[in-house]
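hi! just following up on the protien thing from before. the input was this:
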Amino acid sequence: MKKLAVAALIVAIAVVFTAIAAGANNEWDLYGSVRMATYWTSQDYGDLYKSNANPSGDDVFGRSGVQNLQWYLQGNSRIGATVEGDKLEARFELGVSSDGSGGNVSSRRLYGVWHFNEGWGLKVGKDYTPITFFLSSQVFDSDNGLEFVGNAYGARYGQIAVEGKGFKFAAITPSPTALDNLAGTVPDATTESKIPKFEASYQFDFTDAMSVHAFGGWQYYNLYWLQPVSAARQEENVSSYTFGVGADLNFGPFFVKPQVSYYANGAVAGWLNTNLGLNSSLPQQTPFINATGNSIVDIKSLMAMLAVGFMPTDSLRLEAGIGYLGSKSEEDQGVDFNNNYLEYYLQTAFSLAPGVYVVPEIGYRDYGELKVTGKADEDLGGLFYFGAKWEINF
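and the predicted 3d structure came back as:
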């Protein structure tokens, strides 16, 4: 039944978009992309399992690390369609991932744009948010592209946006998940939102090959809870913001793509992962209630990245990249924590035929050390990987 429902959904969407295209004399294009991940990984646990009873740091299996083969259909494999006309355009895109012998379908993008003036449009629906500029081509972890660990990423959310002439502004679905998780750990805690999340960006093109961009975002939430000892009602505003700059610079076959961004409580707004999506023992990126239970401890973060490369032909690209994420908590009764994370990769991308690509890549994720005031530094380990992504676009 699940397979039939998915097939019916795809057919229904295709029929609707075909009818729109035919009725309005619009241009309608279907597209798809199949992506397979094939990697070998080796993770070092560092000090995560060390204790007085287990000074070697071995895990419960008697090992200090674990090796794994990754061999799967990436979740960002997709099918979709675009419709373009004189004043209106639209797009839908469905993600397709494998699940044993079955599969899962998810919505990636669904939006329409009304071009109300020359060069300007009103967008309604789900799409990438304005702070998202894809600079890194890293393919590991389903085309991670240093997202959340160097490359600013707003993900895909429902939004009402105005776009034109390099400028984007959007009112976006707010992201309370991190605060909701926090609220579940303290008595009678709840979150309250009265306004959407806002993001804006501007890209200035010097030439077709040279551009710079700037961006920013802001989100505002209220958090209510009971003080654990006195049971007094506590309330605090949790504000998240980000701003950053970057560039996409191409010099003939060479390219340089830097970016730097700053965050306050970035995980609350969905701009940072609460555990980087890599290691559940990494320090939390979510603000937390202080030791006395009467206020919020904010988290400040700095991200930076650099991707450089050489593309001698249309069928060959060499690229290297590095990403950095440093996070630090405000001081709480003389105690704070900080962590510096680094990620490196080197890849060679081959185009075997039009629409057919294989991208071998090798890289390392250094989870850094957790530094807490008054405690010994804790090595969080790292992850080494090598392998390739296989992709066919149609």
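DSSP finds three helices and 22 strands in the chain.
The first helix runs from residue 2 to 24.
cheers
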